[in-house]
Amino acid sequence: MKITVFGIGYVGLVSGACLAEVGNDILCMDVDSAKISLLEDGGIPIFEPGLKEMVGRNVSAGRLQFTTDVERAVNHGDVQFIAVGTPPDEDGSADLRHVLDVARNIGRLMNSSKIIVNKSTVPVGTAGKIREVISSELMNRGIDFKRSLKKY
To answer: Which of 11, 84, 90, 101 is the most exposed place for a label (fewest CB within 10 A)?
Structure first.
């Protein structure tokens, strides 16, 4: 299965590496080009026991790749994992800006139905917001994927 993972922090990188380990074709996307370069050079930006070896094994096998190219990332995966940070907002609530930015990019660039998986730590109701953002971007493009955007 082709899967895109947005965000390569603890959640995204570990999820991407584990999904590659079981045979999936994974493309991890991050806006931080230094992280991408580090990973492409065989390093990892976080510590998790066994992760460096797992990443290396799956990169060598061609099941795990990295990019800063949003369009490539959206086009790659039939499944799109959102695993970006949700730092506390000024009032202590989760700042959903990065999550909704990813959703906006997915809606702006997708050309086929996608399954969206939210792995970011978010409050109840965020899935509805993600769905609304993607739907709005599709409507702006004159694309009607309404039948494809199901609630689960």
So the answer is: 90
Half-sphere exposure of 63 (CA within 13 A, CB side): 16
- Phi, psi for 145 (deg, rounded to 5): -100, 20
Report angle CA 61, 64, 65 to the nearest 5 degrees: 120
**For the chain, give me the number of helices (H) and strands (E)?**
6, 5
Cβ count near 117 (within 10 Å): 17
Distance of CA 104 to the CA centre of its chain: 12
How high is the mean pLDDT in each 10-residue block of the chain (152 residues)?
Answer: 96 98 98 96 94 97 98 98 90 91 98 93 90 94 68 50
Give this prediction's pTM.
Answer: 0.91
